[in-house]
Amino acid sequence: MVGFKATDVPPTATVKFLGAGTAACIADLITFPLDTAKVRLQIQGERQGPVQAAASAQYRGVLGTILTMVRTEGPRSLYKGLVAGLQRQMSFASIRIGLYDSVKQFYTKGSEHAGIGSHLLAGSTTGALAVAVAQPTDVVKVRFQAHAQAGGGRRYQSTTEAYKTIAREEGFRGLWKGTSPNVARNAVVNCAELVTYDLIKDTLLKANLMTDDLPCHFTSAFAAGFCTTIIASPVDVVKTRYMNSALCQYRSAGHCALTMLQKEGPQAFYKGFMPSFLRLGSWNVVMFVTYEQLKRALMAACASRDAPF
């Protein structure tokens, strides 16, 4: 057995809720530069055609993007929007991951044998609910990450000022800009990520290929990250473009997607795929491994506290 030993008592909903948010924050701290590189690559060339965009591309590849940002904006640019990112994960991941098992049990009426439909329904529900709560933090995070500061002023002076400025200039609807594509993205991401992780982990355990410890969690998380990136990339690019857009640049998320297709071609929907996979793959590994260990550690702490002397 590697890591904390599983307890006899299953984790409570509160332990899952707190554990998911904490694990997601830890994963964000480690993988945030990859997320910032992904955002820069996704928005690159959005006001140009495919030929002009390729000729004038400022960022090329994951490493090239990171090195260019460090050279022109300094190392701190890789962590632009981190505060909003951590605020997002603490509210967002706590709901979409922490409540997933509880919602799944609700749809199966407590049955231990949940079908694929129940997994997908639970993933879609918690993903959509999480977006409804945490959307403003996502908007601010993307705005910070997308803004190149080389030689120019800051778009926003602080995270708090960003919330206030967006609300003042664009109305409160501006803080929920891109909710539709984000709901679509996170329904897809949650289903691909959590359901794939759940199914792969269950398959490995039932086939006695692995035991319920770190190697099993690592393998399941990495595979879930790869599947999720392939499925969710097109929606993710549209979400990023739309949330970062100027007022009235796009009429809707659908208009944003159509404009991308007309100006840049279908390949635009997979811009930033490699950093997306590197980020989502590594994020999944760190998050799920940490989450599984936190659940066990918190339950062990509760059992130790309640045990008689």
From TrEMBL:
The keyword Transport applies. Solcar repeats lie at residues 11-106, 114-203, 212-297. One of its GO terms (biological process) is negative regulation of calcium import into the mitochondrion. Belongs to the mitochondrial carrier (TC 2.A.29) family. The keyword Transcription does not apply. This is Uncoupling protein 2. Keywords: Membrane, Mitochondrion, Mitochondrion inner membrane, Repeat, Transmembrane, Transmembrane helix, Transport. It holds the Pfam family Mito_carr. One of its GO terms (cellular component) is mitochondrial inner membrane. Transmembrane segments: none annotated. SUPFAM superfamilies: Mitochondrial carrier. It is a multi-pass membrane protein. PANTHER family: MITOCHONDRIAL DICARBOXYLATE CARRIER-RELATED. It comes from the Eukaryota. One of its GO terms (molecular function) is phosphate ion uniporter activity. It is found in: Mitochondrion inner membrane.
